[in-house]
Amino acid sequence: MTTHTATTEQTGARTDEAAALIGDSRERIDALDDRIIGLIQERMAVSAVIQEARISSGGRRVNLAREMEVLGHYRDALGKPGTALAMTMLELCRGRI
């Protein structure tokens, strides 16, 4: 198999130029995904601090009004799929309930 065939098969592109563009863009997406994962991990740590403070002061672990604000923020910024994304993020940040 030639390099051209391997590159176009891996990217689905029909030209070397398109395959190169797709390859470069995928590298960018991978780097962005790494940053997003790091930011979510950071958010999880901050959320744990908030939960601990709330619980130690006699409050509940989860503040549903705040979660609704977060859901609205993501929905407003990203549309309906933003709500699902925010729900997943909130689930990750709650830890075990």
UniProtKB/TrEMBL annotation:
GO terms for biological process: chorismate metabolic process. Keywords: Isomerase. The keyword Isomerase applies. Its EC number is 5.4.99.5. It comes from the Bacteria. One of its GO terms (molecular function) is chorismate mutase activity. The keyword Coiled coil does not apply. This is Chorismate mutase I. It comes from Streptomyces venezuelae (strain ATCC 10712 / CBS 650.69 / DSM 40230 / JCM 4526 / NBRC 13096 / PD 04745).
